[in-house]
Amino acid sequence: MDNNLEEVKAILKKYGQEHLLNHYDKLDDAHKKKLLEQIDEIDFELANSLYESTKKETKNSKDEITPIDYLDKFKLGDKYKYYEDIGKRAIKEGKLAAVTMAGGQGTRLGHNGPKGTYDIGLDSHKSLFELLCDGLKEESKKYGVTIPWFIMTSKENNEATVNFFKEHKYFGYEKDKNLFFFIQGELPMMDTEGKILIGEDGLIKLAADGHGGIYESLVKTGMTKKMREMGVEWVFIGGVDNCLAKMVDPVLMGVAIDKKVTVACKSVVKANPHERVGVFCRRNGKPNVIEYTEITDEMAEATDKDGELLYGESHILCNLFSVNAVERMGAEPLPYHVAYKKATYMDKDGNLVVPDSPNAYKFEAFLFDAFGEVDDMAILRVKREEEFAPVKNADSAGVDCPSTARELYKKFYKLD
Ligand code: UTP
After folding, report:
1. Between the CA atoms of 324, 326, 332 and 337, what dihedral angle is there, to the nearest 10 degrees?
2. What are the tens digits of pLDDT across the range 183-229?
3. What is the pLDDT of residues 338-377, one digit of tens each?
4. Cβ atoms 173, 179 nearer than 8 A
5. Which is the closest atom of ligand 1 to the Cα of 109?
6. 316 lines ligand 1 (CB under 6 A)
7. Measured between alpha carbons, how far is 393 from 387 in angstroms, rounded to an integer?
8. Which pLDDT value is given to residue 62?
9. Is the Cβ atom of 290 under 6 angstroms away from ligand 1?
10. Is 74 exposed, middle or buried (0-12, 13-18, 19+ CB in 10 A)?
11. Which atom of ligand 1 is nearest to the CA of 100?
12. Domain architecture of the chain: domains with CATH
């Protein structure tokens, strides 16, 4: 242990993070061991470069942004059935799995517990997890298969998530047979001086590495291997917080298969040109998403000859990938984006600091940054009222919150 400690000290000195051992002597043995393990797992070169990135303008204004083609699901004419038949065949053959990303912190919603456990206030009091599962089970029945379900959690919420499923008898799924949990990666949080934070437990303050961590963690945790063993070729990846997400869509699958693309994404048209959402585009010729903070007013308002917005297809985290594409994307590191957040931490004198304004950097990869890895993808515009009811904020925000999602859900399922 002592030798190990000396080595750790040398590493920390090299990277200017010696403070991480300030409270080491006060920790019990289990925490001491854990802290050393955490330090061992940190890629300090990466941590340094992430901190350096906080000082730079990350958007590359030299990027060439151009519109990207899309199909409107309800303007496919005869092709609708053609795609649908292709997709149905593949689903019946057991080629589709679903992944729900549930590793986020859900800070805006402010729910005490994993976001998927949240009850949006329907009469049934079903959680977001159960609402998603209902959809999967209904579709599975149609095709005479069980769609395997993979849930991505974070280290922070994994135990609570798995326990919640257990309490609900896994909603009829069978754990480790057709229901799998896997944990996403984490990165340390840092203060504005680039010092890694220590949390109230004396351990390093880590945070999930963003939904872009999905590819790497699917591969690293052996989930893509498992998919292959099960004969799965396509995987729908969606968020936990869209209670109308349609994870099994034969038309989307048919489009992907027929057009020989490895990624097919759903979009909904922007509610108005200035809606604060990311939209599909091409960046330097490759498929990508441009965020509302990046787009100029002129671009946001530009229309084509039919009066449709040129940048009007919102990315709603409803994307279908071939397993090959996931593996390819998992092999390439994604850029990290910086978020400035409030984080409780222990200062150098061992005092707990509970900030009332943001004080720490958190680093996250975004799922859509991997889209550039593929040469081409298909985008299918679907109807917002049928497929998009996000739960992002607390009700006080009035938008994308439990009450708006509940109304959309009730309307779609004609519950009133
Ligand atoms: P959001 O970006 O909306 O984040 O995630 P969030 O964590 O739910 O909420 P805020 O920003 O803290 O308020 C979109 C989807 O991606 C998942 C979320 O669980 C949600 O389903 N996600 C996000 C992860 O699985 N891991 C992450 O690290 C981040």
Report:
1. 160
2. 999 999 999 999 999 999 999 999 999 999 999 999 999 999 999 99
3. 999 999 999 989 999 999 999 999 999 999 999 998 888 9
4. yes
5. 13
6. no
7. 18
8. 84
9. no
10. exposed
11. 21
12. 1-41 (no CATH), 42-412 (3.90.550.10)
Sequence-ordered list of residues with C-beta below 8 angstroms from that of 136, at least 6 positions apart, any chain: 98, 147, 149, 247, 248
Cα(341) to centroid(ligand 1), Å? 14
Asked if residue 207 has its Cβ within 6 Å of ligand 1, the reply is no
Q: For residues 189 and 369, give the distance between their C-alpha atoms in angstroms, rounded to a whole number.
A: 21
Q: What is the mean pLDDT of each run of 10 residues along the chain (416 residues)?
A: 80 96 95 95 94 77 92 97 98 98 93 97 98 97 97 97 98 97 97 96 95 97 98 98 98 98 97 94 95 93 95 98 96 92 92 95 96 92 97 96 98 93
- Which pairing describes strands 96-101 and 234-239: parallel, antiparallel, or unpaired? parallel
d(CA 266, CA 257) in angstroms, rounded, equals: 15
Q: Name the closest-CA residue to atom 7, ligand 1.
A: 104
Assigned token pair, 80: 């609708």
Show the tokens assigned to 199: 């949390």
